[in-house]
Amino acid sequence: ARDITPLHLAQQTLREREITLRRTQVMAKIGSWTATLSSRRIRWSEETSSILETQWEEGVNVDRFIAFIH
Prior knowledge:
The protein is an alpha+beta fold. Helices cover 54% and strands 14% of the residues. The chain has a three-stranded antiparallel sheet. A hairpin with a 4-residue loop joins strand 1 (33-36) and strand 2 (41-44). The longest helix has 24 residues, at 5-28. The model has no long low-confidence stretch (mean pLDDT 89).
């Protein structure tokens, strides 16, 4: 049998950090995003969606994102 305790602990730590990040972004009114230029897709945080006053989506097209900020 394999001890998967370290894996479960790492997953729990990741979940806690994601919650902390979301709360911090809401309090500071700061969103985040990451771009994958090869596929021209951007993933943004829920707070970015709130700031842009649009519905949160996974993998938004780069052109659509640029339209929001210009």
